[in-house]
Design a protein that fits this description.
- The protein starts with a helix and ends in an 8-residue tail after the last helix.
- The protein has a four-stranded parallel β-sheet, with helices on both faces. A three-stranded antiparallel β-sheet has the order 1-3-2.
- It is α/β, with parallel strands linked by helices.
- The longest helix has 25 residues.
- Among the domains are: 80 residues, 2-Layer Sandwich (Gyrase A, domain 2); 161 residues, Isoleucyl-tRNA Synthetase, Domain 1 (Orthogonal Bundle).
- Helix 1 packs across helix 2, helix 8 crosses helix 10 and helix 14 packs across helix 15.
- Strand 4, helix 6 and strand 5 form a beta-alpha-beta unit.
- The protein has 21 helices and twelve strands.
- The structure holds arginine.
- Arginine binds next to helix 12 and strand 9.
């Protein structure tokens, strides 16, 4: 509930609007002093009195109500204390009434947000470097939908480029349908690596690759068929990982989709006088914006990554009329997106301001195993499998008699991978550690999941309270209530800053507060009346934790 507005509407301070008062209300140093404090120093001028006197006057004039239980004046501040029982009743009732919709809103109603994420490259390994974009993008997708927006998930496939010519050469020389059928994406990648090794000895392979790529572009049926085969194989394999991670897309329009949509963009750039020739290439000069030129067409007339992104942005605006278009891409591409956004702005697109590069940091593995240079790749699929396997051995040790161990280990292991990538501010580089993400006592998804299982088992024994009364509220209960109440605001902030980590941290904080409550207060053994409230509070916590994890794409096992 918005207590700030409630208080602001009832404080009578001369010369300040309700909004201004609400904005001035802040949390006092301890919740013993109160929940909101209004500093009166700014009022001294208009009210011509010392702040301490003003505070006393405002406190004395505040009309009594059932929401604010205490008003006091301390050193120029008016402190307001919200009635604990009122707060607890309101919050728990709201969670229990809204259930899986608790935290949802319609603030994004009528607004479409395109989210470009994961965007894998055909025939290239789906490795741990793609983890962040995939899970961040997916969390942002779910969060937007939960807050009433219409998200459009786009996988801007890297399905264009000379590397496909190389692959065709490698495949026809050293590969076979059988090899790919058995070896999948890894076999395809090995062919690619082999091409480079052989091309060092035999230059002509590169010419052959260029010719093959040209064939794809010209629509030669054999070349296109091979390309489609590579594409299908890649999508089949990444699809398995997407299913595990609960990741979905509405559009798979990749780079090649824009083959016939770039000419109008090039024409428009030329018409608007933005294209200049530089060393045979067509570029947009960005020197006065402190950036290198954005190359639109190479000297041989070929388009570039940026050309495709400019065409894609125009296409998305036209197709979806987006309110925002997000690009969840590593910070290594900062310059690329600054250039693309600037070119669109120079083209006079007023919506260029609605394009957002949601940049994130790098993920490396603890033992440094990932080294693309040495051709050593850590496949995301393997990281997930290893987490699930480790989760299974931990669970089997902790709870040998548990049924459905495999199923639960999958939920726990997959959750650990997702949560591990989402727990920190997205821009930070992270080192992925199996032990850290699977620490049941740490700031992890398994800690949160374990807490959910604990709450569920309390409810299984005590039954869900049909109705409850709230009398005295103890500090452990109160802290939990306050945190529960913060969930909707946390989601709002997470969306505004594109930070799913706010949700991950919220889940850990809430779980910690629940565990404190669980260990300090007896739930099932509480006296009648209080027991019902504590059960209701337990159920509300379970709901909020489930909603938080769900937004991140993480499931909640009933038992663990
Ligand atoms: N496929 C690209 C890569 O792996 C990412 C594409 C991101 N999206 C975009 N519209 N540029 O680097």
């Amino acid at each position: 509930m918005d207590f700030k507005r409630h208080i602001a509407a009832r404080v009578r301070a001369e010369g300040l609007t309700e909004e201004e008062i609400a904005a001035m209300l802040a949390a006092p140093p301890t919740s013993e002093m109160g929940d909101f404090a209004l500093p009166c120093f700014r009022l001294a001028k208009t009210m011509r009195k010392a702040p301490a006197l003003i505070a006393e006057q405002l406190a004395a004039n505040y009309p009594a109500d059932e929401i604010v239980s205490e008003v006091s004046a301390v050193n120029g501040y008016v402190n307001f204390k919200i009635d604990r029982a009122f707060w607890a009743r309101q919050t728990v009732q709201k969670v229990l009434a809204e259930r899986e919709r608790y935290g949802a809103s319609d603030e994004g109603k009528g607004k479409t947000v395109c989210i470009d994420y994961s965007s894998v490259n055909i025939a290239k390994p789906f490795h741990i470097g793609h983890l962040s974009t995939t899970v961040l993008g997916s969390a942002l997708y779910k969060l937007h939908r939960f807050l009433g927006y219409t998200p459009v998930g786009i996988n801007h496939l890297g399905d264009y480029g000379t590397q496909f010519g190389k692959l065709i050469v490698a495949y026809t020389r050293w590969g076979s349908a059988k090899l790919l059928e058995e070896g999948g994406l890894r076999a395809l990648n090995e062919l690619y690596v082999r091409f480079h090794a052989e091309a060092e000895k035999d230059e002509s392979l590169n010419d052959e690759a260029r010719a093959q790529f040209k064939k794809i572009e010209q629509g030669d049926p054999d070349a296109v068929a091979l390309f489609e085969k590579f594409k299908e194989l890649t999508l089949r394999e990444v699809g398995k990982v997407y299913d595990l991670l609960d990741v979905h897309f509405d559009s798979w329009a990749g780079e090649s989709f824009y083959n016939d949509k770039m000419q109008p963009v090039v024409d428009e750039l030329r018409e608007k006088g933005l294209l200049i020739e530089s060393e045979g290439a067509q570029v947009v000069d960005l020197e006065q914006y402190g950036m290198p030129p954005c190359i639109i067409l190479r000297s041989d007339g070929a388009s570039l990554y940026a050309t495709r992104d400019i065409a894609a942005a125009c296409y998305r605006k036209q197709t979806y009329d987006f309110y925002k278009c997000l690009y969840v891409v590593a910070y290594q591409q900062n310059l690329h997106f600054r250039q693309v956004f600037k070119v669109l702005e120079l083209m006079g697109k007023p919506w260029a301001k609605d394009l957002v590069h949601v940049a994130y940091g790098m993920v490396s593995l603890e033992d440094g195993a990932m080294s693309t240079r040495k051709g050593k790749v850590v496949y995301l699929e393997d990281v997930i499998a290893k987490c699930v396997e480790k989760a299974l051995s931990i669970i089997a040790e902790k709870n040998p008699s548990l049924e459905n161990k495999e199923e639960i280990a999958k939920t726990v292991g997959v959750g650990a991978v997702i949560f591990g990538a989402l727990y920190n501010n997205k821009i930070k580089d992270i080192t992925f550690s199996y032990d850290k993400v699977l620490n049941f006592e740490g700031e992890t998804s398994c800690y949160v999941q374990y807490t959910c299982a604990r709450a569920a088992s309390v409810l299984a024994k005590g039954g869900n309270a049909a109705s409850f009364e709230v009398g005295q509220v103890c500090p452990q209960e109160f802290e939990l209530v306050k945190k529960l109440d913060e969930f909707p605001a946390t989601l709002h902030d997470a969306l505004e800053k594109y930070e799913p980590c706010f949700i991950a941290r919220y889940a850990v904080d809430l779980a910690q507060l629940f565990n404190k409550f669980y260990f300090d207060c007896s739930i099932l053994g509480a006296e009648e009346g209080r027991r019902e409230f504590r059960l209701a509070l337990t159920e509300a916590t379970l709901i909020a934790l489930g909603n938080a994890l769900g937004l991140l794409g993480i499931g909640v096992p009933e038992k663990m």
